[in-house]
Amino acid sequence: MFIYLMIGIVIISHSAKLAAGVKELAQQMVQTSVPIAIAAGIDDPENPFGTDVLQVQAAIESVYSDAGVVVLMDLGSAVLSAEMALEFLDEDQKPKVRLCEAPLVEGAIAAVVQAAAGGDIDQVIAEARSALTAKASQLSDPVGGTGILPVGGTGILPVRYATTTKEIHLTVQNQQGIHARPAAQFVATANRFNSEITLQNLTKTSNIVNGKSINNVMLLGIQQGDEIVIKAVGEDAELALIALQQLVDNNFGETIGETVNKPKEDINQDSNPASNQSLHPSSVTLDRLVGIPAAAGIAIGAVIVYQPKLPEIIEEQTDNPQAEWETLQLAIKTAQQQLQHLINTVTKDQADIFQAHLLYLDDPALVNRAYQIIVDQHLWAGAAWKTVIDETVANYQTLEDSYMQARGNDVIDVGWRVLRLLTNRKETCLDVTEPGILVAGDLTPSEVAQLNPSQVLGICCASGSATAHSALIANMLGIPMVVGVGQDLLSLPAGKELAMDGTTGEISVEPSEEQKQELQLQSNSKDELPREVITKDGHKISLMANVLGEGDAKLALDCGAQGIGLLRTEFLYLERLTIPMEEEQLATYQAIAEIMGTHPLTIRTLDIGGDKPIPFLNLASCDPSCDPSCDPSCDPSCDPSSARHTPEPNPFLGWRGIRQSLDCPEMLKIQLRAILRGSYGDNIKVMFPMVSSVEEVRAAKEILAEAKAELRQEGYGFNEQMPVGIMVEVPAAVTMADQLAAEVDFFSIGTNDLSQYVMAADRTNPKVAKLADALEPAVLRMIQQTVTVAHQAGIPVSVCGQLASNPVGIPILLGLGVDELSVNPPAIATVMSVISQLTINQAEMLAGEALQLDSAVGVREYIINQLDRSV
Q1: What tens digit of pLDDT does each residue of 243-277 get?
Q2: Contact, 561 vs 552, CB < 8 A?
């Protein structure tokens, strides 16, 4: 019997359901079994739409034969993924794999029918390409543009082909044009739709660029008054254009005439004497420097020289491009997690900047270019990524608008964040021991965001721009800043005294007493923070801080915190691609404890999962039949790419917090040993997250006991009576609070998680997030129950969620008897102010009434009205 090889068909789509439907439909058209494989969607439960190169490669190989393979794609990244996948095939396979631009549904049906009939690869492709002919002849009018279909027999409806391009012409009114924030909003909106979206600056006759790439959008240099054209192709093209037009018409939420992110002094640099002076050598003398004012204010102090050590990137070749590509993807994902944690700890305006940074990391213009370099040039991931960053920054520098040029600094910030991960180098921390003026070449937004205003009195940069986001953050922090001073600035030695004026851009080197007195008269001294937090009727309230690291700890103390109620140790894991070992963790805990002095420090063990995944730990559900510690971090024999690892469909209900720690006992023990050793001589407590049963607490305490026994045997000192507490975040923990209280020394209520679990609403899902409101009476009753049981058992209760810093929630928490509040450092002043205006009796009355209301809206309105009456 003669057996012939049949053409294989691969269907690539952004939607797994669409691809499966097309495959099923095509198979029903023939009696013969044709080899068909699909590569569709991505492993992301929240956003499953997309394509994956490795999945495409596997699909091609699964149907490959010497007869050849025809690859059909829907749109956008599907085409790019197909092209990239070809690079991974063996050289003898590549010529026999053909990409076909035919329409996905009709093309797949035609290709399968021709393949089943025994056609060769050219015949299959030809049939696929001509698949629209029949439909076109049936629908088209004689001109070929628009057809008509009867509607209910009473009228006609114009019908255009699915490939018809829709477009709109708009004029941008924003004073700064489409800068970082509007660009981020444009790209975020465009990415909500499946259609291909392009953007062009008609005024400057620019190239047509991908509207879903933040770099491409910003590099168009769209200014106020420029005319743009937005085009969309796809099934939801019309909806996409409506949304984008609304965004532009609303001026991206900005007020016309408002200068966004741009200091007044820098709106027109030609009219700014300080700016002009900084361009000429005559403005620099031995005792006087002049730069561009970037953040107003006066500062006098000694020079603190900052020279960040950037990782050295060597252009080395690789024999395994696929491994390098996977390494880069992991580093990018880790960097995204770092930024997300940063966003959660800064003010809203700062968060907006770092939200834009997240888009840079998801920008196809960057990521796909890096992939291309890795595959074509066989460069290792770091060299490829640095090449892309350098190219992108160079493109920003070619723009005419100085404001847009400054956006290149954001690309540098994001780029080096990834490079530090690829080279296993931590982000440089600004360890300032004495107050002074920071002198640097330039600073990125991330570097400025970590500064402590009580230690860094001012900032002077040799280069930089007053419109950079680093300057905006300095303004938010209240740190005077002067940029563009010139290279002479960098010759100043550490310790030399400076007096700077962030309003004029003037810097005096070794100022006279008369100069200093004059400047000090202009400066407004800060009011000292109260040392105690006291209610109106004299009750003292413990006010702690939630922190991420040493910088946060210093800021918390300066803001008036009486200790740390929550040290999130995830930052130790997010800053790297490998697990931090005992000595490294110990050094960090000791450094923070030293900053806090006699103040208490509560260290929460690793809390990952849910909205805080850590890529290198491969947070996936393991097959119950395998070792529960199956994770490459705990079990070297575990293969993270094996079939027994699958993404969690509901990560908030999955492997997170103490569950993950107990499944990786050695990792937990490393952390507990470091915490115990740090407790020697310091006021340290340990706290376990995401507890839902007594069994979990006992298991964790058993590992703690093992760590203690080992340390005793090894001769290490530690606090034998170190307090142990748990986070109360799950309704089960509230229900079992009486038995849990018998096992631990304190409770800390995480109202963010408790709210979403009580209300069964994922707080990261915008469709239901509003339900996860900690002011819901159901949540407040859970808090009340926890406090009552804890006090009966003689243990204190803290609240460390966002409710603790909510002016509406604070009176309720005090009225329910909460012993301690722990908030982010910037919120401390607000919390102090609210507490000082309350009496305990008033708080108890407000809490009692709030518990009887039926909604969060009702609670919020009631508390606000009552507080307004008491003012």
Answers
A1: 899 889 888 877 655 444 433 333 333 333 333 33
A2: no
User: Is-contact 623 644, C-beta < 8 A?
Assistant: yes
- The answer for residues whose C-beta is within 8 angstroms of residue 108's C-beta and 6 or more apart is 9, 11, 22, 23, 25, 26, 72, 128
> Which amino acid is located at 536 in the chain?
K
Separation of CA 88 from chain center: 31
Contact (CB, 8 A) for 276 and 473:
no
Residues belonging to the chain? 871
* Residue 628 near residue 660 (C-beta atoms within 8 A): no
Q: CA 625, CA 622: separation in Å to the nearest integer?
A: 8
Order the strands of the 227-233 sheet from edge to edge. 166-171, 227-233, 196-201, 209-210
Both structure tokens of 93? 């396979």
By C-alpha distance, which of 600, 541, 476 is closest to 828? 541
The amino acid at residue 3 is: I
Report the 3 state secondary structure along 407-435: CHHHHHHHHHHHHHHHCCCCCCCCCCCCC
Grouping H, G, I as helix, E, B as strand and the rest as coil, residue 50 is: coil
**What is the set of active-site residues?**
469, 800
Tokens coding 243: 């949304």
Structure tokens at 319: 């024999």
Give the relative orientation of helices 777-793 and 840-850 as an angle to the nearest 10 degrees: 130
Beta strand pairing call for 292-295 and 542-547: unpaired
- Partners of 601 in beta bridges: 564, 684
pLDDT digits (tens, 9 = 90+) for 724-773: 999 999 999 999 999 999 999 999 999 988 999 999 987 666 567 678 88
Reduced to 3 states, what is the DSSP secondary structure of residue 104?
helix
Choose among 326, 479, 469: nearest CA to 410. 469
149 φ/ψ angles, rounded to the nearest 5 degrees: -130, 140
Q: What separation in angstroms does the CA of 597 have from each of 371, 548, 557, 591, 683?
A: 49, 17, 10, 10, 8
Of 305, 587, 566, give the one whose Cα is nearest residue 431: 305
Indicate the helix (H) or strand (E) that contains 264: none
Q: How far apart are CA 414 and CA 354, in angstroms?
A: 9
Residue 39 pairs in a beta bridge with: 12
Q: Which bin fits 261, alpha (ψ -120 to 50), beta or left (φ > 0)? A: left
For residues 28 and 34, give the distance between their C-alpha atoms in angstroms, rounded to a whole number.
Answer: 11
Q: Which residues contact 122 (CB under 8 A, 6 or more apart)?
A: none
Q: How far does CA 385 lie from the centroid of its chain?
A: 19
Cα distance from N-terminal residue to C-terminal residue, the chain: 96
Structure tokens at 663: 């499944």
In this predicted structure, the answer to whether residue 695 has a pLDDT above a threshold of 70 is yes
Question: Which two three-digit tokens encode residue 252?
Answer: 């991206």
Look up the pTM and report it.
Answer: 0.49
Put the strands of the sheet holding 506-509 in their side by side order: 288-290, 506-509, 497-501, 298-305, 436-440, 456-461, 481-483, 292-295
DSSP string, 486-543: -GGGGGSPTT-EEEEETTTTEEEES--HHHHHHHHHHSPPPPPPPSS-B-TTS-B-EE
